[in-house]
C-alpha cells in the first residue's frame, strides 16, 4: 500500500489504495463541509427533577478511593439535590449559565438543556474518581478543571436497546445514531514508527468486537474510518536516527573512530538522558540500555581488528543515534527519508491486524495526504477567533475557547485541566521550546519546521501539522460535520481527544462534534502500562508465536473492553481453558 509523503516542495501525489482497503472517494476526497447552524434548545429542568428539588433533601453518598503521596484514603461525598440550584443569567451577563452551588460556593457552567443533566454529570464524575470533592474549595475554584461539559443526547429515538459506555458521561447511554441505521465511526489509528505491540491489539481487537456486534447483530450500517499518523515528532526523530545510523555504518569509519564515538555517545547518553529522567520506570529502561551498550562496546574492543562495525552500530543505536542526531540531524532535508520509516511500519501493522483477524477499515486516511485540508481547517479556526499565529506556528487559544459562551475545554477529562506535563508530552519530543504562546496551555495546530524536519507550504511559512489537528480534519473530510462514534485508547482522552473536540467545535462554531466517545482500557505488564518508551512491550508477532489469534481474542472478551487488563501467562491460561469449553 503506497502513497506519497509529499515532495520536498510541499506537493503531493494522490494516493493509490490497494489491497483490502477501499476509499469511497478513491483519489478524490470529499470537501470539508460547513455545519448548518442550529438553534440550541432552551434551558428547562424536567418536571421530575423539579419535583425532586421540592422534596426533602436526599443526600447521595458517593465513596471513592484516591491515592496521593503513596497514601490511600477514602473520600465520601454527599451530593444534596437541594444544594444544586439552577438559575438563568442576569440581563447584563455574557451568557446563560447553570449555577452549581455546593457548600455555599457557586460554580458557573454554560447553558445546557436541563439541571437533571447537570446533576447526573456531577454524580458520574464523583463516582468515576474525579475531583468533585474539591468543589467548593480554593483548589477547586476554577470550574473548568473539575466538571465535564454536559452531554446532550441525540434527539433520535433509542434503537434496539443498545447502550454504549460514553466517555462524555462516564456511564452507559442509549445509542441513538443520527441517521437511522447508519453509523459514522472514526477511530484513532497507530503512529507508525515501530512494531505494533499487544497494547495496540487490545484497542483494535476491542473495537473490532464492538463493530462486529453492531453490524452483525444490530444490523447497523457502520462507516468505519481509521487514520494512520505518519507525520509526528517521534517518527521524525526515529527516521533521522535510522538514516544517520545506516549512513554511519556504511561510511567505513576506522575502528578507532567508531570506538571513540561510541564512548562519547555513551557518556552523553548517561549525562543527558539518564541523569535527567525523573520517571523511575523510564530511567530503569535506560539503565538497561546503558548496560547492554557498555557490554557491547567492551566486546567490540576485544574483537578482531577486521570485525565489521555494522552489527555493533545497530546494537548501539540508541546512544549512538542520539549522538549523531545532535550533530547532523539538522542537515536532513529530504522528505523521502521521513516517508520510508512510516511506510514500512504501516505495512507491518496491517499484517499484524490481518493475523489477528481484525477487519480492515472501510476508509483509511494518512496525515501526509491531508496537509492542504489541514491548513484550510486551521485558517477557519483563526478566522473564528480561537487560534493565532506566532513566529510561523499556529496555536489554539484554550483560554479564550473555554471562556466563550458556547464552549467548554477538556470535556472528557476536566480534572486534567491545566496538566502542563500531559499537554507538553502531547506537543511532541521536538516541540519542547515553543515561542510565542500566549498561555502555557495553548497547543500547536501548525508547527514551523526546524532544520532536519519535513515541511510543507502554508500561509504561515514552511511547516507541518500538529498532532491533534490531524484527526479533526480527516474525520470531517470523510464523515462530515458530526460523528456518531469516535474511538481510541484511554491514554488519548487528554490531551489528544479533548483537543480534537475543542478544535472541531471552534471550526464548526458548535457545542457538540461527537455523540459517543469510546475508550479502550490500558494493557499492563506486572502493573505497568505497556509502552515503547519503557521497553516493556510484547509485540503482536511475539504473542502469536505462543498463542493463537482466537485465544488472544478470547482473553480480551473475558474482560471488560474499557478496563485495565494485566497481560500475563495466567490470564492467557484462563482464555485457553475457556476455549476448550467451546463447541466450535
N-to-C terminal Cα separation, in Å?
35 Å
Largest sheet: 5 strands, parallel
Helix- and strand-based class? alpha/beta
- Report low-confidence residues grouped into runs of 5 or more: 1-145
Features:
alpha/beta; disordered N terminus; four-stranded antiparallel β-sheet; globular; 584 residues; single chain; 17 helices; five-stranded parallel β-sheet
Question: How would you summarize this macromolecular structure in one to three sentences?
Answer:
By secondary structure, this protein is α/β, with parallel strands linked by helices. The protein has helices at residues 47-54, 115-127, 198-217, 233-250, 255-274, 280-302, 310-315, 317-328, 335-355, 371-383, 398-403, 420-427, 469-479, 493-508, 540-546, 549-557, 569-580, and strands at residues 59-68, 71-80, 97-102, 105-110, 163-166, 171-174, 182-187, 221-228, 363-366, 387-390, 393-396, 443-448, 463-465, 483-489, 514-520, 523-525, 528-529, 565-566. β3 and β4 form a beta hairpin.
Amino acid at each position: 500500500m503506497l502513497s506519497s509523503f509529499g515532495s520536498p516542495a510541499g506537493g503531493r501525489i494522490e494516493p493509490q489504495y490497494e489491497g483490502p482497503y477501499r476509499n469511497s472517494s478513491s483519489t478524490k476526497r470529499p470537501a470539508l463541509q460547513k455545519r448548518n447552524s442550529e438553534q440550541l434548545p432552551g434551558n428547562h429542568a424536567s418536571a421530575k427533577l423539579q419535583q425532586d428539588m421540592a422534596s426533602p433533601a436526599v443526600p447521595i453518598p458517593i465513596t471513592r478511593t484516591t491515592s496521593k503521596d503513596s497514601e490511600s484514603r477514602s473520600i465520601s461525598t454527599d451530593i444534596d439535590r437541594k444544594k444544586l440550584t439552577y438559575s438563568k443569567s442576569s440581563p447584563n451577563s455574557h451568557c446563560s449559565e447553570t449555577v452549581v452551588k455546593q457548600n455555599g460556593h457557586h460554580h458557573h457552567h454554560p447553558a445546557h438543556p436541563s439541571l437533571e443533566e447537570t446533576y447526573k454529570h456531577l454524580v458520574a464524575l464523583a463516582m468515576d474518581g474525579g475531583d468533585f470533592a474539591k468543589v467548593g474549595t480554593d483548589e477547586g475554584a476554577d470550574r473548568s478543571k473539575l466538571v465535564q461539559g454536559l452531554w446532550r443526547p441525540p434527539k433520535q429515538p433509542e434503537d434496539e436497546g443498545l447502550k454504549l459506555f460514553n466517555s462524555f458521561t462516564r456511564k452507559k447511554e442509549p445509542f441513538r445514531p443520527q441517521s437511522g441505521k447508519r453509523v459514522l465511526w472514526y477511530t484513532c489509528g497507530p503512529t507508525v514508527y515501530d512494531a505494533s505491540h499487544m497494547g495496540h491489539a487490545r484497542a483494535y481487537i476491542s473495537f473490532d468486537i464492538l463493530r462486529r456486534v453492531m453490524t452483525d447483530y444490530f444490523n447497523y450500517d457502520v462507516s468505519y474510518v481509521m487514520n494512520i499518523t505518519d507525520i509526528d515528532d517521534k517518527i521524525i526523530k526515529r527516521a533521522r536516527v535510522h538514516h544517520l545510523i545506516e549512513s554511519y555504518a556504511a561510511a567505513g569509519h576506522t575502528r578507532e573512530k567508531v570506538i571513540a564515538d561510541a564512548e562519547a555517545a555513551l557518556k552523553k547518553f548517561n549525562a543527558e538522558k539518564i541523569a535527567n529522567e525523573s520517571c523511575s520506570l523510564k530511567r530503569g529502561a535506560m539503565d538497561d540500555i546503558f548496560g547492554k551498550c557498555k557490554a557491547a562496546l567492551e566486546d567490540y574492543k576485544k574483537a578482531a581488528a577486521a570485525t565489521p562495525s555494522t552489527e555493533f552500530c545497530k546494537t548501539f543505536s540508541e546512544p549512538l543515534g542520539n549522538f549523531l542526531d545532535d550533530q547532523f540531524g539538522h542537515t536532513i532535508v529530504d522528505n523521502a527519508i521521513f516517508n520510508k520509516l512510516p511506510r514500512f511500519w504501516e505495512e507491518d501493522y496491517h499484517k499484524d491486524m490481518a493475523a489477528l483477524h481484525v477487519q480492515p477499515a472501510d476508509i483509511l486516511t494518512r496525515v501526509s495526504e491531508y496537509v492542504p485540508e489541514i491548513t484550510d481547517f486551521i485558517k477557519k479556526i483563526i478566522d473564528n477567533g480561537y487560534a493565532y499565529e506566532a513566529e510561523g506556528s499556529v496555536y489554539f487559544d484554550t483560554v479564550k475557547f473555554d471562556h466563550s459562551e458556547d464552549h467548554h475545554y477538556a470535556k472528557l477529562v476536566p480534572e486534567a485541566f491545566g496538566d502542563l506535563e500531559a499537554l507538553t508530552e502531547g506537543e511532541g519530543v521536538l516541540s519542547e521550546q515553543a515561542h510565542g504562546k500566549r498561555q502555557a496551555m495553548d497547543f500547536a495546530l501548525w508547527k514551523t519546521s526546524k532544520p532536519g524536519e519535513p515541511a510543507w507550504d502554508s500561509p504561515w511559512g514552511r511547516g507541518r501539522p500538529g498532532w491533534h489537528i490531524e484527526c479533526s480534519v480527516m474525520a470531517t473530510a470523510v464523515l462530515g460535520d458530526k460523528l456518531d462514534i469516535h474511538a481510541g485508547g484511554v491514554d488519548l482522552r487528554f490531551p489528544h481527544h479533548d483537543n480534537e473536540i475543542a478544535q472541531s467545535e471552534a471550526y464548526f462554531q458548535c457545542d457538540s462534534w461527537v455523540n459517543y466517545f469510546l475508550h479502550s482500557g490500558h494493557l499492563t505488564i506486572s502493573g505497568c502500562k505497556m509502552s515503547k518508551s519503557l521497553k516493556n512491550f510484547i509485540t503482536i508477532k511475539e504473542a502469536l508465536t505462543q498463542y493463537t489469534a482466537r485465544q488472544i481474542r478470547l482473553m480480551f472478551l473475558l474482560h471488560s473492553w474499557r478496563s485495565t487488563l494485566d497481560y500475563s501467562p495466567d490470564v492467557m491460561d484462563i482464555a485457553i481453558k475457556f476455549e476448550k469449553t467451546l463447541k466450535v
